[in-house]
Design brief:
Helix 1 links the parallel strand 1 and strand 2. Helix content is about 35%, strand content about 20%. With about 260 residues, it is of the alpha/beta class. The protein has two domains: about 130 residues, 3-Layer(aba) Sandwich (Rossmann fold); about 110 residues, 3-Layer(aba) Sandwich (Rossmann fold). The structure holds NADP nicotinamide-adenine-dinucleotide phosphate. The site of NADP nicotinamide-adenine-dinucleotide phosphate has 24 residues, from strand 2, helix 2 and helix 3. NADP nicotinamide-adenine-dinucleotide phosphate (NAP) binds next to strand 2, helix 2 and helix 3.
């Protein structure tokens, strides 16, 4: 049987789910690519390669070198650089490419969201008066909050931020989702949180903090997503259908049909 060689750009729950499906289906041969930013990533059933490709050019060369038939960008909605590189590289070497991009969260009745375009605007939106702020933005983008030291911060991310990036006096919590609503409510209460700052990542695993904020009447500073780089589907099922269609196409082409 002719197998479709898939390069899966990962680092998300969607990538893990797709990796499972690819590994279990003999029509596909997959490699999962990770940036290498998480200290102990989830174990994958696929072969894993780790680290950057060296920009769009490097990724294009990798696609050619490994004779990849299809590229799936299942990176995070805020991983804008790799997504742009994936779209460019795939177009350069004519490899079909799709992104899996989960829908953003939407404001519900009772929510009080302040939407901002980026992290410096999020820090500015906290205002001059001291507040106790829950930062659930990962560990890369903390610098604007270091520059607003009037606030007291509780920072949560999977791994600790690099030395010197945590705002002075911040409480750090190392945790990986999914997070349960009751735990999020307890965290907001125990730390006396007054405002949450989050990226609009979407998805179920980390949505409970928004429900908890609504229940407590807390404002949420919501950082909007960067624009999508290329064609995208919202779910793992859609990405799977796309892969199956690519397999059928490729198999027909190889049979000369
Ligand atoms: N940003 C977030 O909020 C967030 C949240 C959860 C998980 N993640 C995951 O963490 C990783 C890094 O995110 P980021 O926001 O730092 O990405 P980014 O800014 O878009 O990418 C920075 C560089 O990291 C390398 N890279 C990123 N993802 C890669 C992958 N899957 N495989 C190989 N190289 C990769 C690329 O290096 P080269 O140019 O050298 O190829 C890329 O140019 C992503 O895989 C993403 O899915 C990100």
């Amino acid at each position: 049987m002719s197998r479709l060689k898939v390069l899966l750009l990962g680092g998300t729950t969607e990538a893990s789910a797709l990796a499972e499906r690819i590994a279990e289906d003999e029509r596909f041969e997959g490699t999962l690519s990770l940036a290498g930013v998480t200290l102990s990533p989830k174990v994958s059933p696929l072969e894993v390669r780790t680290g950057g490709f060296g920009g769009a050019e490097g990724l294009a060369a990798d696609l050619q070198q490994h004779e990849i038939d299809a590229l799936v960008d299942a990176t995070h909605p805020f991983a804008a650089v790799i997504s742009a590189n994936a779209a460019t590289a795939a177009a350069t070497v004519s490899v079909p490419c799709i992104a899996v991009c989960r829908p953003p969260w939407e404001e519900a009745p009772g929510d009080c969201w302040i939407r901002v375009p980026d992290m410096p605007s999020a820090a500015a939106a906290l205002g001059p008066a001291p507040r106790t702020v829950f930062l659930t933005i990962g560990r890369k983008d903390l610098a604007p909050f270091r520059a607003a030291p009037q606030h007291r911060y509780v920072v949560r991310s999977v791994d600790p931020p690099p030395q010197g990036l945590l705002p002075d006096g911040a409480v750090f919590i190392a945790a990986r989702g999914p997070f349960a609503l009751e735990d999020e409510e307890r965290l907001l209460r125990d730390h006396g949180i007054e405002t949450i700052v989050t990226k609009n990542s979407g998805g179920e695993a980390t949505v409970a903090k928004l429900t908890a904020a609504r229940r407590r009447g807390l404002p949420v500073v919501m950082v909007n997503r960067p624009p999508a780089a290329g064609p995208a589907v919202p779910t793992v099922d859609d990405a799977w259908d796309w892969l199956v269609a690519r397999h059928e196409e490729t198999a027909s082409a190889r049979r000369g049909v």
